[in-house]
Amino acid sequence: MCLLPCLLSAAIAAGLAVAFRYSLYKPLPAAIRQQGKLLLLDDILRFFKGLGLVFEWLGFGNHIKLARDNSETPGTIKKPKTETDKDGCSVSDTAFDGVPVRVYQPPPEAGQGRLKRGLLYIHGGGWAYGSPADEEYDYNSRQTSKELRAVVVSVDYRMYPETRFPTAYLDCLAAARCFLSTEVLAQYGVDPLRVGVAGDSAGGNLSAALAQTIATDDSMHVKFSVQALIYPVLQALDFNTPSYQQNRDMVILSRSFMIQLWLQYLDADLSLEPRFLANEIIAELSPELRARVDWTVLLDPEYQKGFLPVREESMKITRKGLLQVIPTLLDVRASPLLAEAEVLAKCPKAYVMTCEYDVLRDDGLMYARRLRGAGVAVTTEHHLDGFHVCFSLATGFFRLDVGVRSFNSYLRWLGDNL
Length: 418
Hints:
CATH superfamily of the domain at 83-235 and 331-417: Alpha/Beta hydrolase fold, catalytic domain
Strand order of the largest sheet: 1-2-3-5-4-6-7-8-9
Distance between the termini: 65 Å
Number of strands: 9
Strand content: 15-25%
Shape: globular
CATH topology of the domain at 83-235 and 331-417: Rossmann fold
């Protein structure tokens, strides 16, 4: 008897939700296609974030962990101890030096004995979200393993709020050292001359940091031969680059959200956000450090787009400087863009993918310029219709054309260079 009132209530609630959504809606750039799916994905992510905040207010724990745990169910592949899919790709969960990893091995083929490629993959998610078991990461790793005949190791590093910097980096470094060991490479039949590291967003940050560390570590007999960085986040000093200004209110990843993720990762107070928006820290940098993030020099004019630098030059600030409050801002393990040219010169050849409608676009472009300046071979791929997370949208309900295209471009580059 209550069916009709219940349906009516549900319809009213749905209508109010739609009305509320469109009251907040800002048109996306016309270059972005299949906008309905992107907006729906953004709504779902906002819902789980909001749900987490409600539960945190009720005393059930940190909202990020709650949002992460609650959002895993619909789009997550359950972790197998060992499985072989219909195409013959073997997937297993194990640990490298105590760090959980998911290992993908390509289907067996005739004439066994030929060494395989190897790839260490590090997922994104702002050092707070994501897992190798997420549908999009699981799909990408399976496809990479099959298409390239590669052993792919996807790292399940520890994240915020359980840990802070440098735990994620140290987990990935431990897994990398283990994978690159002669014993483990031999166990999986991987060619030590064809091992790469790749990652997206925060995973691109960790990948770039690992590439620098391994390249300069004389104790490592096997080095990464390539690095593939997908819209990497590489610095936390200037949140007013042209891409941060242009895309400050973009869906999925806004400027404010990126600052929040950085502050969480570096174990800093979220109330510091206005000081970062004002680029207060620029006044604290030496000329040499400023040059490493100076987009007026490191970006081509087409990417500067007429924006002006935001620099707080006044030193009359009586409060503690940001570098005193957060000294890790200058740690190259957190901000690989700040590495010295001598370090960059030792890094492997690189693939850097950027997207026009992404706050992180200029981080990747500046890093590519600095790598080239140090003598490293760099391939850049810029998607004029791309946005943050598009690389992960190559499968499932949220599959987008730009997602398929960007993933395939990445595979082609690895196929030609790894």
